[in-house]
Write a structure and sequence with these properties.
The protein is mainly α. It has 12 helices and 3 strands. The longest helix is centred in the C-terminal third of the chain and has 33 residues, at 273-305. The chain is globular and about 55 Å long. Keywords: Cell membrane, Cobalamin biosynthesis, Membrane, Transmembrane, Transmembrane helix.
Length: 306
């Protein structure tokens, strides 16, 4: 039954996209922001970490528990579909990426900078075409894991409650997982638990990128470059994706007014507008691969227990 629920949720996301109003994640984000403002007052490191753990538990445990209970009631499979649909962001990711692509091919740099600014946290006001394309491809590859494959992985393991757990934890990491004075300690648990939840999905995402693109290059870049990146999970995903696309990612980027020289990932030429389109297609092919593997696995398990 899991493959049917998965495909239905993916179809809903493709048909409807993310809700324009009243998206549960938006409400969750407001609640998380309010709670953080109440608890995070630059305490000593140990106290700040304890408060960060408390905030994480307050926000996630009730949501996960309620989702678990409801999806195990009669006809709970309907809620499984709805919860996975809300956890997915495949259409939104594709639309954001192609919005940058369209602006670049129309030579509209201001529109391209605005569009990529909706996808990344770096400064975008002075980016040139290559830098815009690089930032967009990096975001498409990394968020392919965060907005699609991680949610699918935990859905397969735990149903709709697993998708809820993953996406809410990922949202808290995106809000609190910064190494700034404000979040260095308070956001520590949010960052570490997101790393833990992503440990397996990120590597499966990297493998799927390699298999759905230039496989040898993707696997080689994953092996040789992933460890150089700052995130233990984004490294494999972006290195394998860059290699699969035969493109160079990383390099200089500006954050909060300061230039940061990042490791180089991938191989081949610099990113262009066409690379954005190729990255979107790579994520699409990987999604199809995941559906095929999950369907085949379900058939095999059913045959084994028959």
């Amino acid at each position: 039954m899991t493959p049917a629920l998965l495909i239905t949720a993916l179809w809903l996301d493709r048909l409807l996209g993310e809700p324009g109003r009243w998206h549960p994640l938006v409400g969750f984000g407001h609640l998380a922001s309010h709670l953080e403002q109440q608890l995070n007052h630059f305490h000593a490191p140990f106290t700040a970490r304890l408060l960060g753990i408390l905030a994480w538990l307050i926000l996630l445990l009730p949501a996960f528990g309620m989702a678990w209970w409801l999806t195990h009631l009669t006809h709970g499979w309907l809620l499984d579909i709805v919860l996975l649909y809300f956890a997915l962001g495949a259409r939104s990711l594709k639309e954001h990426g192609l919005r940058v692509y369209t602006a670049l091919i129309q030579h509209d740099l201001p529109a391209a900078r605005t569009a990529v600014g909706m996808m990344v946290s770096r400064d975008t006001a002075s980016l040139n075409k290559e830098e815009i394309a690089t930032a967009t491809v990096e975001s498409v590859l990394e968020n392919g894991n965060d907005a699609i494959f991680g949610a699918i992985f935990w859905f397969v393991l735990l149903g709709g409650s697993g998708a809820v757990l993953f996406r809410l934890a990922n949202t808290l990491d995106a809000m609190w997982g910064y190494r700034t004075p404000r979040f260095l300690h308070f956001g520590w648990v949010a960052a570490r638990l997101d790393d833990l939840l992503n440990l397996v999905p990120a590597r499966l995402t990297a493998l799927s990128y390699a298999l759905c693109g230039h496989t040898r290059s993707g696997l080689r870049c994953w092996q040789q470059q992933a460890h150089t990146w700052y995130s233990p999970n984004a490294g494999p995903v972006m290195a394998a994706g860059a290699g699969a696309l035969h493109v160079m990612l990383g390099g200089k980027a500006r954050y909060h007014g300061t230039d940061k020289l990042r490791p180089t990932l991938g191989s081949g030429a610099a990113a262009t507008a066409a690379t954005i389109q190729a990255a979107v297609r790579l994520v699409d092919r990987s999604t199809v691969l995941w559906c095929i593997v999950i369907l085949a696995g379900s058939v095999l398990v059913g045959a084994w227990h028959a």
